[in-house]
Design goal:
six-stranded antiparallel beta sheet, 12 strands, 38% helix, 10 helices, alpha+beta
């Protein structure tokens, strides 16, 4: 007898993208997360405790205690049901629950009977997975125990946030170069699978060293913050942005064609030019140069896309700054050198 399907969230596409951009899927076991599931198992007196991340077609265990498996199909995952709500899901006896009674995880190993899972909600408001505890016997969960599980889930979220902070630039909060490239890989794969457009804009603040040399570190930090704020105001929900150098930013535009991407790039350039002075009374206006490119059939990976965008950026700077240059690979012959449009 088949078991019921798991619920699909209305924001599933955005949730999946958010999960991927956390940078923790398929990472090696981490002692800090391992301690948290051991703690949950001990204080709630359950043989199994897991940090489960609900991926596209699986649940993957960021940390596990009392279970050998590292993942299960999503259709079997209790956690796939738990993330459909912001409340803790408690299943006293899965054998009596029509959602789970025919589930192979109930009828076979590990013989799940009791389950309690608290959603792990990201800063963007998406339920990425759960902190859950499992028993092979039916049991009651008190309100105090639910609260304790929820408090432990907050510790998991705090640990996830600490890891995120380690991969962002401190002034702007944008992903650093390594993190940006890692987060961009799934977007490139999606674009390839769907034959969709993908554009990458690389920009640098013009004459940034002059700002630092003339007005000091505080002024240069303020310039970065002003540019970052303007970029945030121009982001679409699917976009990925990173600060990939001291004064260099990269913006990955999902589902953007050449015309639309150039319009957005010009809007960003003009918006930055309209910002106030570096500081009150300085009179110095910020300007950027940018390089724009599109995903091409010959691109082996995201590094090829970024390299071409940076080559276009150098062309813009060489042509006098304060402009956007576009550099496209030949779509008919990926082995041909890129051409300037």
């Amino acid at each position: 007898m088949p078991y019921p399907d798991y619920p699909i969230l209305p924001n599933e596409v955005q949730r999946q993208r958010d999960l991927e951009r956390q940078g923790v899927l398929d990472q090696p076991e981490d002692e800090h997360f391992s301690r948290l599931v051991q703690l949950a198992s001990t204080v709630l007196e359950t043989p199994i405790a897991l940090i489960s991340l609900v991926d596209r077609d699986r649940q993957w265990f960021l940390a596990r205690h009392g279970l050998e498996a590292t993942e299960t199909p999503r259709e079997m995952a209790f956690c796939a049901h738990a993330i459909a709500s912001d409340e803790t899901l408690v299943v006293p006896d899965a054998r009596q629950d029509p959602r789970f009674c025919t589930n192979p995880l109930v009828t076979g190993d590990p013989k799940v009977c009791f389950y309690a899972g608290t959603p792990l909600q990201s800063r963007e408001g998406h339920n990425l997975g759960t902190l859950c505890v499992i028993d092979r016997l039916p049991r009651h969960f008190s309100a105090n125990q639910v609260k304790l599980l929820e408090d432990l889930a907050q510790l998991v979220l705090r640990e996830l946030e600490l890891r995120r902070l380690a991969t962002v630039q401190p002034i702007t909060g944008f992903a650093n170069r390594i993190s940006f490239l890692e987060q961009a890989k799934p977007e490139l794969e999606r674009a390839r699978t769907a034959s969709a457009n993908l554009a990458l804009l690389a920009i640098e603040i013009d004459h940034f060293s002059q700002i630092r040399n003339r007005w000091g570190q505080e002024a240069s930090d303020r310039a970065l913050q002003d540019v970052a704020e303007l970029l945030r105001s121009q982001l679409c929900p699917k976009d990925l942005i990173g600060q990939i150098g001291d004064q260099e930013f990269a913006l990955l535009m999902v589902d953007a064609n050449a015309e639309g991407a150039m319009e957005r790039a010009e809007a960003i350039r003009c918006g930055i030019a309209e910002l106030g002075g570096v500081f009150r009374g300085s009179g110095h206006r910020l300007h950027i140069s940018g390089g724009l490119t599109l995903l091409a059939p010959g691109d082996a990976g995201i590094h090829d896309l970024l390299l071409r965008a940076e080559r276009a950026l150098f062309l813009a700077q060489g042509n006098g700054h304060n402009q956007i240059a576009e550099l496209l690979a030949d779509p008919l012959d990926p082995d041909m050198p890129p051409s300037m449009d």
